[in-house]
Design brief:
149 residues
Length: 149
């Protein structure tokens, strides 16, 4: 490495084989390692505690990089989609006078079921086992099949 001063007094380093940090980096994403594949699949299920958005993001961004992640994120998204919509609708209706508390209570019950189911699934997937939810509506699969026709 050569050291010298520039015209305005700044300190410069030069090298004959110096590369920029982005040279040689592939534009195509690399497959996930087994550990990363399992952890992203686990996060897709644990994300169900807050709704369908985390599993949707993981499924959309990482499904081509890991088979286990794709399978489990799709399962989590299928399970969390309908309850998330129900929770949002119930929270919106909870402001109604008189019967709004019923919608709030129903939203809380659905959220507790969603959170507990997601945590159980995340623990199972973290051990490396695939998981299928007991009461999964498979809404995403149904919509994607109808769209493919």
């Amino acid at each position: 490495m050569n050291y010298r001063f520039g015209r305005k007094g700044e300190f410069l380093t030069t090298s004959t084989n110096q590369k920029t940090p982005f040279e040689g980096v592939s534009a195509t994403p690399q497959p996930l390692s087994v550990k990363d594949d399992r952890s992203m699949a686990t996060m897709a299920h644990f994300g169900g505690v807050v709704g369908c958005v985390p599993s949707a993001i993981i499924y959309a961004t990482l499904r081509s990089r890991g088979r286990f992640t794709a399978q489990e994120a799709r399962e989590a998204l299928n399970f969390t989609l309908i309850p998330s919509v129900v929770i949002v609708a119930c929270v919106a209706l909870s402001v109604l006078p008189g019967i709004g508390w019923l919608f709030g209570l129903f939203a809380a019950i659905v959220w507790v079921y969603l959170a507990v189911s997601s945590l159980v699934a995340g623990i199972r997937v973290n051990r490396g086992n695939p998981y299928q939810y007991r009461f999964n509506t498979r809404a995403l699969d149904w919509v994607s099949r109808r769209r493919a026709r």
